[in-house]
């Protein structure tokens, strides 16, 4: 440790720390533009200048290492004049766009110009203009505002692993952009907006929509993938205008996937905002009373339930209670048919934890593609790879995971490998997609054996796809004694009535004719097309709820807006349905519902003991297929979003690249 004195305050910091970090440890604010805690040091904005005793001139604190006994001064006449000079240079070519800039009110340049600038410019020459670049349907560029801090360049190359941004030309002609004008191919491109300290990179869907002081901010959770990214939902009135990540070093650091960030425009399209009842073969609008009468008349006999992939835990438990009250054990949450029995929680969790990836000394990925299944987790793998982690992959050839890996083979035979030999903390990431194969049980057992879990370290990690999948497994929404799974309920005559709770991830046309179907959800998606009764529920932004991420972290979200029209929170609908069906359930309020299961009293990461190994099934020899998942439109909100439709066109290659605006 080095002892450093900052403005008379003595602090100890690790050897190799920068002067800027020592100043922050002493509680001193240092202005900066190019420096970012999670990126490499560039040292090119010079805004972080400080005085160091016996140094001949002010030094850039972000790039200057500490030495034992060093004395630093952060607020002297020399430092103030140096910062004013730097700010004056930065503003030479910066346009006066504040009244029309989407970063207005959230702009580092704006804030620091007020705090550290001179207030006067001696430069009256014409400002330069730079052509805006097209970098895709999500990020809007106004490159005349760019101050060449290179944060975006370093983020794309270091965190996203897609080195498509860079600087061309030199001096006053320098420009940041793609070398050939094209859309950025990263699923994390929206984070460029957050790290840009000026208005050069902003959100294309949010452009000219609102000012930050007009917005109401609500904490929530991104449930559109299984990472469980903490988010902030910005609303004005009844409309969601923006979604941004919150920082959590154990989950997402400060990054977020593009689907969760930009698909919010799907929340106001194709919505179910009133009940519908099928009469004379056609769905027609109905009142809630008429809908409940239809449910009471049709939902009887042998009944079953299927829940979707993004449903909150409260609604899942409410439906389970309803089915149990009717004496039914026919229920399933595995729309994809994944071979997960739920008997041992450790068999379906990401046990190594997301942050634990950085502790691993070897990592093996089996099947799937973590880049499109969980972009933020894939970025964490890349971070560990850059720090020396060796990565192996068993699956389809030719995948670009944004980091180098050893391709061990394309079929299960490649699992007989010594890649993890000698590793003290191995991590085996098994894609949920691999568990949809006929040999899923054999793969699960092999992956478990490769991870070799112990009470001190369990590296077996199942990577789920959506935010509601683990919660449903934790609540046991699986076939009970004598109950039918999804495939069993699809057999002709197996059930008389079926309740679909946000279940749009399977082929609803396979439901046998004559089966009475109640669909409860927020979008008129696949399940609604087959329904006899449609009950409009609330999307994740419109209700208070609990979700569990892929590592078993219990997270609470809050309502940012009210559901549209006559839609209601799902648990309330199910309580009303229980009354209509004359079924006794153990709750009348949300508090009583949560008291009915210990999951809701837990908060944060809930680990599972390794327990016994999974029972192996027959082995297979078929090669792992390349994933055909459409990342942008993988769930109902994304499928309703015009922005995600545009991304699918650009990135999935279905239409030519759109021209720049």
Topology:
Layout: E1 2-6, E2 9-13, H1 19-25, E3 49-52, E4 59-60, E5 71-73, H2 77-90, H3 108-116, E6 139-141, H4 151-159, E7 165-168, E8 175-178, H5 191-195, E9 201-203, E10 216-221, E11 230-236, E12 239-245, H6 258-262, E13 276-279, E14 282-285, H7 288-298, E15 303-307, H8 313-325, E16 331-332, E17 362-366, H9 370-373, H10 375-386, E18 390-394, E19 406-409, E20 426-431, H11 440-451, E21 460-463, H12 469-474, H13 486-489, E22 497-501, E23 516-521, E24 533-536, E25 545-548, E26 553-557, H14 570-580, H15 590-595, E27 604-605, H16 636-640, H17 642-652
Parallel strand pairs: 1-5, 15-16, 15-22, 17-18, 17-20, 18-19, 20-21, 22-23, 23-24
Antiparallel strand pairs: 1-2, 3-4, 3-5, 6-9, 7-8, 10-11, 11-12, 13-14, 13-24, 25-26, 26-27
